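Training component of the fellowship. As part of building independent skills, the fellow (R.M.) carried out the full modelling exercise for a liganded target. The chosen ligand was 2BA. The inputs are recorded below so that the supervisory panel can assess the work.
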Amino acid sequence: MKLVISIVQDVDADNLVEEIIKEGFRVTKMSTTGGFLKSGNTTLLIGVDDKKVDDLLEIINENCKTREVTKTIQTINIPGQAMIPVPIQVKIGGATMFVLDVEEFKRY
Ligand code: 2BA
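Fellow's submitted model of the complex:
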């Protein structure tokens, strides 16, 4: 068994969870915050049979889109130590995934 941890954008999360459940997987949805953008994203925990991992990754791939956002970063102007806001474009991936081996799985 594997545990797939998938970090996706909030806008894709509800549709994705519906598709995952429709295809017979079980999923836990958590509200999380990206460290870089400091804005909300969604982390899904999905326990899955080894043979089904590719099917699951395909569903995630089909339901998540890459998007660009503008983030304003504050740079320091050393002489006056004033903070200067600089907008930068950031491409957020459709999904970031970790696939872990599960040592033991129990349900009571
Ligand atoms: P955030 O940390 O808010 O990052 C959002 C996007 O900002 C990233 O998209 C990436 O394009 C960019 N980014 C992140 N750190 C950066 C940096 N130090 N310099 C320049 N650009 C940077 P994704 O890579 O698609 O990541 C989306 C979200 O997935 C991340 O949100 C974070 O919550 C999670 N994530 C990505 N890689 C991770 C990892 N190795 N470990 C844990 N969480 C990760």
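The panel noted the following from the submitted structure. The two ends are 17 Å apart (CA to CA). Residues 7, 34-37, 41, 90-93, 96 surround 2BA (CB under 6 Å).
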